[in-house]
Amino acid sequence: MSSHRGITVTPDIASTPNSNPTSTPTPNSTDTDTEPATATATATSTTAASTETTAGARAVVECSCDTMDPLDTLDDDNVPSTSGQQRGCTPVGADSAAPVSTCAFRVRRELNEIRKNPPPNCSADMCMDRLLHWTATVIGPTGSVYEGGHFKLDIRFPLNYPFRPPRIRFTTFIYHCNVDSVGAICLDVLNERWSPVMNVSKVLLSIWLLLGECNADDPLVTCIADQYKTNRQEHDKVARFWTKRFAMPKEPKDSKKPEDPSEPKEITGPNDPEQKKNNREPT
């Protein structure tokens, strides 16, 4: 009898699929899902880093804006151009500040002009170095009941100037039918006739003309307008009294001129009672 030995059959490696050790392994489903997840995580981290960088830059811009007054640091280079060409880099949030920049540029230009060439009998300048807050002075016209008076005005510019008129009121009391007790002025160029081509110099000149000739047909204080029409003499008397009391500079009470030691003293004459008393012979 022939004995059969157990023969172990080894499978042919070449014939077995995916069994070649030198061939490129086929990625399984786990590896396929891991690669997109890794790419997504990398993109997310990159986006987060850029977001943090943008937030940091925004914080720097906001911090710098909090530490300085944008109206006092504006110059011609920071003002947006009306020709559509960009002059420089625009910081974050500069779009909302564009009207403020335009207003500040216009106000600063008018300030320089009024300093160089003020209108007749008028002057204006900034109040406490505030660009959008001015104080002005109008001198009463010669020959009017306000002659000799120096009337102070308060001027406030809105952020949408010059598309809206400035807010102007008298801070000096004045007896006028077109000016009320709080200093508000009834003037057409400050209301319906305002135009962006107007400026503060023209408005001050209009106020000066209003002092010389009031508009009693369109009054702000009706009782003063009625007195102006019916009793002009009494109206002018009260207006002059108010001008002298509130608008004219007051002289100090002790206005005596100090004696100059170099000036020769007055010599008393023979008809002076003191001289007669001293020269009187004893009895």
Automatic annotation (TrEMBL):
SMART domains tied to this protein: UBCc
InterPro entries: UBC, UBQ-conjugating_AS, UBQ-conjugating_enzyme/RWD
Pathway(s): Protein modification; protein ubiquitination
GO biological process, one term: ubiquitin-dependent protein catabolic process
Residue numbers spanned by region Disordered: 1-55, 72-96, 244-283
EC number in record: 2.3.2.23
Top enzyme category: transferase
Basic and acidic residues: compositionally biased ranges: 248-266, 273-283
GO MF annotation, one: ubiquitin conjugating enzyme activity
Residue ranges annotated for the UBC core domain, each copy included: 102-248
Ranges of biased composition (kind: Low complexity): 15-55
Enzymatic reactions: S-ubiquitinyl-[E1 ubiquitin-activating enzyme]-L-cysteine + [E2 ubiquitin-conjugating enzyme]-L-cysteine = [E1 ubiquitin-activating enzyme]-L-cysteine + S-ubiquitinyl-[E2 ubiquitin-conjugating enzyme]-L-cysteine
Keyword field: ATP-binding, Nucleotide-binding, Transferase, Ubl conjugation pathway
A Pfam family per the record: UQ_con
Positions with biased composition (Polar residues): 79-88
Record-given protein name: E2 ubiquitin-conjugating enzyme
Organism name: Drosophila pseudoobscura pseudoobscura (Fruit fly)
Gene: LOC4815530
